[in-house]
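Quick one, tokens below. Sequence please?
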């Protein structure tokens, strides 16, 4: 939804599927946060962009941070602004429910679970109160379409990550967007990002949850358009 809105407003939009998601295979390089940054580096170099607004949602936001941490020269050369949407730099392994969450996301029966009433409640917990039922279904379908191997690998990597030292050196304008009702990467994770990245700006969307591109596409597209105009 966000990409469609941006294209109508004029900017060139480049999208790609992360490893193990959509049409991208798992690959043979393993599941590591540095690998995410290297993949994004390859995309930016392939399209040969020099003044990009580089944006990422959730794991995509971690990918942008990994690029800034492990390839700061690429950010300096090819990005004029960064946008981190519903994401975190650290802290995803702190919760007491992590073991249970991991069992759920790696289970071969996860699709059956998410189609149940309990699964519907779990999905509701990941989004805001006003989300349309169709978006819940899409969230579920995106999740179960990701290979179990990829879910396990990326969850392990994200629970161990700590990108705070690297992002403290970011030198381009950065905007952090978070939903006030996000339970996956809650507002305190966004506050940590803003406190760590020099000059970062925080945008909080009241009542929204984790799936901001689906829940609030107009607001996210507007934020990206404004950033593109002033960066």
């Amino acid at each position: 939804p966000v990409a469609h809105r941006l294209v109508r407003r004029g900017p060139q939009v480049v999208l790609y599927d992360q490893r193990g998601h959509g049409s991208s295979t798992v690959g043979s390089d393993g599941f590591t946060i540095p690998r995410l940054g290297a993949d994004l580096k390859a995309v930016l170099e392939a399209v040969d962009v020099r003044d990009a607004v580089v944006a990422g949602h959730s794991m995509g936001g971690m990918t942008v941070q990994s690029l800034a941490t492990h390839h700061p020269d690429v950010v300096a050369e090819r990005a004029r602004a960064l946008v981190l949407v519903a994401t975190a730099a650290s802290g995803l392994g702190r919760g007491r429910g992590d073991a249970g969450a991991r069992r759920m996301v790696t289970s071969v029966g996860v699709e059956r679970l998410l189609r149940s009433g309990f699964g519907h409640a779990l999905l509701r917990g990941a989004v805001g109160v006003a989300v349309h039922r169709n978006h819940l279904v899409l969230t579920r379908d995106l999740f179960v379409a990701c290979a179990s191997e990829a879910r396990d690998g990326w969850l392990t990597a994200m629970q161990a990550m700590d990108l705070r030292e690297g992002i403290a050196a970011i030198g381009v304008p950065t905007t952090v967007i978070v939903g006030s009702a996000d339970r996956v990467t809650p507002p305190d994770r966004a506050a940590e990002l803003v406190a760590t990245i020099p000059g970062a700006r925080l945008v909080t969307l009241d009542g929204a949850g984790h799936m901001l591109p689906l829940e609030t596409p107009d607001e996210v597209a507007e934020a990206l358009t404004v950033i593109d105009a002033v960066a």
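The mean pLDDT is 84. The two ends are 23 Å apart (CA to CA).
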